[in-house]
Amino acid sequence: MHTHPRRPLSPPAGVPRRQALLGLGSLAALGLAGPLAGCGRTQDDAGGSAVVRYQGWPQTVLFAELARDLGHLPTVELEYIGNTTSGPQDIQTVATGDAEIGHAFSGAVIKLVEAGVDIRGVANYYGSDERSFLGVFVGRESDVLEPRDLIGRTVGMNALGAHAEAFVHQFLAASGLSAEEIAEITLVPIPPSDLEISIVRGHLDAGVIDGIAQDLAVEHGTLRRLGRDVDLFGSFPAGQMVMRGSWIDAHPETAAELATGVDRAIRWATERPREEVVERFTRIVSERGRGEDPSPLKYWKSTGLTRGGLMEPQDFTRWSDWLRDSRIVDDAPDPGRYYTNSLIRSAATTEVPA
């Protein structure tokens, strides 16, 4: 679950869907696709603590942060460098060498790899299931009764080129809309905290909502759900923690400690009672000194993951239609280029400190 601080409502102009991820694609042109070994301040694996820079999410505990708290990163020093605004932005910092790890939707990872950027998914980090999912919502009294009614309308979402856009595209395609009809729907990037009120006030016709914003909308009774991502795919992993390939080569032990620690942290959070997980997340957020209100963590429901951090080819190929229609790939995506499970060691071991 990603939650974001409230910002004043200011509905932005719509952005055609084929402009999605344009900024990411420019990385290759800027020469960022080449090796970035030596960037950052990571110590050599031969000795000493390894400093690993990362961006966080407000009021959210990343699994790398949980792994540290559980004692699974004995030689890694995580250095928080600020909050990200979206998954695509987060992994850009990895591509540019400003961070060692980042987290994003699978399609955003594919986009950067296809642009020639040297990154790899090293562990899944979030997913959708019956408790935690993305949904398309419309106003309670809206005349949008089925997906086809969205043609010519506006749909808001946190970020273009990420999970929400890919889900909407494949949801509409599965509902019988052609690529041309889907292109007539305007996608609008807007903070999640503003989605519900924007729909209620008529600034948007629909919105893709998850996490606490979804829970609050359900409590308020102002919106009606049109569809869910789990209705298309069942439970599935949706995004990965990534590292630069050159950084992995230069620091294999540190990379393995991180990936393995994240895997074990996910398994802990999946297997322990929800109340215990929320209690630990709340303590972590309360003690890390970022001036955050930990109360939204009470809405946390699940990891959305059933295999820990381990990835499979379908984690990437399930988005093939959106990837092709968005011209991110020309043919079927090649999952072997986007991820590696080789850094996750003893994945079946789930014993962790209390």
Automatic annotation (TrEMBL):
InterPro entries: SsuA/THI5. Residues 87-275 form the SsuA/THI5-like domain. Its main location: periplasm. Keywords: Signal. It is found in: Periplasm. GO terms for cellular component: periplasmic space. Belongs to the bacterial solute-binding protein SsuA/TauA family. This is ABC transporter substrate-binding protein. It comes from Rothia santali.
